[in-house]
Amino acid sequence: MVGVTQKDVVKYLSTPKAYAGAQEVLVKETHMSYVFLVDDNAYKMKKDVRYPYLDYSSVEKRKLYCEKEFQLLQAYGDDIAISVCPVYALSDGTFSIGKSDDEYSKIADYVILMRRFPEAVVYQHLSDEGELDRFEMMDLAEKMVDLHEKAKVRKDKGSVASFKAVITQNCEVLQSFAPRLFRSHEIDDYYKKAIEELEKYAPLIEERRNNGMVKECHGDLQLRNICMKDKKPVLFDPIEFNDDFSCIDTLYDLSYLLLDLEFRGQRRLCSILFNHYMAYSDDLQGIPLLSLFQSCKSAVRALVNATLSETREDEGEAIYHRQKAYEYFVLAREILNPPAPFIVACGGLSGSGKSRLTREIAPFLGTSPGAMILRTDILRKRLCGELPHGHLHKDSYTPEMNQKTYDKLRDECTNVIKCGRVALADGIFASQEERENIEQIAKDLGVPFYGFWMDAPLEVRAERVMKRERNPSDVKSMKVLMRQLDTDVGEITWNKINTAKDREETLADARAIIGC
């Protein structure tokens, strides 16, 4: 037992004899932990490592952070974490988890005992297999909104100074890998651009912190840290080792997941998640910070993969992480250089397919996560104090309320454009005046405008309305749809698109007009 190291503990826990009745042990390793998968359980051990941003270098510290992670998992209420267990080094040279009858035993380390779930239900796997779609992203967005609403406010964290420190530290560590993985001058260029962006929005960052938008968040929202349980998303592996990484702006927390989807080529899912989160959170104030947040997260991933590339003994794994490190760094730079913004408006009577088009075309417009969808159905409910899935009384559809809704739509379009992002307006736009007003916004702002008028035969529109699922529109019956038949829409000068065609054809028609 003299001179027991964590390497000894890991070697023993990697064998079935460490677990009564176990037939097989699967070992997963990251740059911060080992996870031993045994039957229905998972045992997570913090690595004996120390980095500028993390310190697991003693048994006492690993115990502290095991307990902290356990508390965070319990707070999520998803029944994953079971307990924190000591790992005893026994006098015969073996080890025991949880208890020891050996009076000469000594605690060698600690593990978090958790319920194991199959790899097939982890969102990273589901994404790779093409098994994640719109409704899964909507569920995840609502889960995150709920998490962020309930999270504890931390006004002592998330300052501009601390954010600058993170950017500086990231770049300093990245420089340690130059010229092996990165070009030094490109890191300098990135640092300069990131600091410029930070200084530009410093007042907004401080305003959000003072308004309670910096909270105790997850801090590491990646697809690999989310699983499906009872058809609902469950979060695990939150950051517990550094409050500067987890006590952050809620949109900074969201940005990690958006980045992960973007990096994996899942821009459509990224866009759906983002826009549904915004529909429920109403956090348009933070939109200007999104590129900076995503870019910083991408730099962190570059750093992590660079570190992994030099700690892996297998050369194939080392090469894999070197490539990922470079790709993440390239993405970090690209995100801070978005294309010029513009406005797209999709109009048409209920069931015409305008909302479907906005959802499908949004990922192709602008930088990650795509265009900001501004939907009159949601804005109207927001003005009435109702959630997107709520139902409004017919009194909320008066001409006066209609005017307020479209005024709000134009204001939000203006704000989105000023943030440098593409605004995608979704509404009936039944009157010529409403259509002209949204076009005027684009003229006043000096940005391009694209207008689409969606239409389909009545029977197609009726079928769509009757089949609506989790749709914020209150038009869900034939009776309400028929009321629109006498609507005088006036002269239509926008690009007309027949949505009775295949969905991909409709999308292709619209993309061809915009050139995206």
Produce the secondary structure layout.
Elements: H1 6-13, E1 26-29, E2 33-38, E3 41-46, E4 50-51, E5 54-55, H2 59-76, E6 81-89, E7 95-97, E8 106-115, H3 123-128, H4 134-150, H5 160-175, H6 184-200, H7 202-210, E9 214-216, E10 226-229, E11 232-235, H8 243-246, E12 247-249, H9 250-263, H10 267-281, H11 290-309, H12 315-335, E13 343-347, H13 354-361, E14 372-375, H14 376-383, H15 399-418, E15 423-426, H16 432-445, E16 449-455, H17 458-466, H18 478-482, E17 495-498, H19 503-514
Parallel strand pairs: 13-15, 13-16, 14-15, 16-17
Antiparallel strand pairs: 1-2, 2-3, 3-8, 4-5, 6-7, 6-8, 9-12, 10-11
Helix pairs in contact: 4-10, 5-6, 5-11, 9-10, 9-11, 11-12, 14-15, 15-16
Protein architecture, described:
There is one protein chain. The chain is an alpha/beta fold. It folds into three domains: 6-116; 123-335, Alpha-Beta Complex (Aminoglycoside 3'-phosphotransferase, Chain: A, domain 2); 343-514, Rossmann fold (3-Layer(aba) Sandwich), CATH 3.40.50. 47% of the residues lie in helices and 16% in strands. It has helices spanning 6-13, 59-76, 123-128, 134-150, 160-175, 184-200, 202-210, 243-246, 250-263, 267-281, 290-309, 315-335, 354-361, 376-383, 399-418, 432-445, 458-466, 478-482, 503-514, and strands at residues 26-29, 33-38, 41-46, 50-51, 54-55, 81-89, 95-97, 106-115, 214-216, 226-229, 232-235, 247-249, 343-347, 372-375, 423-426, 449-455, 495-498. The strands form five sheets. It has a six-stranded antiparallel sheet. A five-stranded parallel sheet has the order 14-15-13-16-17, sandwiched between helices. Strands 4-5 form a two-stranded antiparallel sheet. A hairpin with a 2-residue loop joins β4 and β5 (54-55). α4 (134-150) crosses α10 (267-281), α5 runs parallel beside α11 and α9 (250-263) runs antiparallel to α10 (267-281). The longest helix is centred in the middle third of the chain and has 21 residues, at 315-335. The radius of gyration is 26 Å and the shape is elongated. It starts with 5 loop residues before the first helix and ends with a helix. The mean pLDDT is 91.
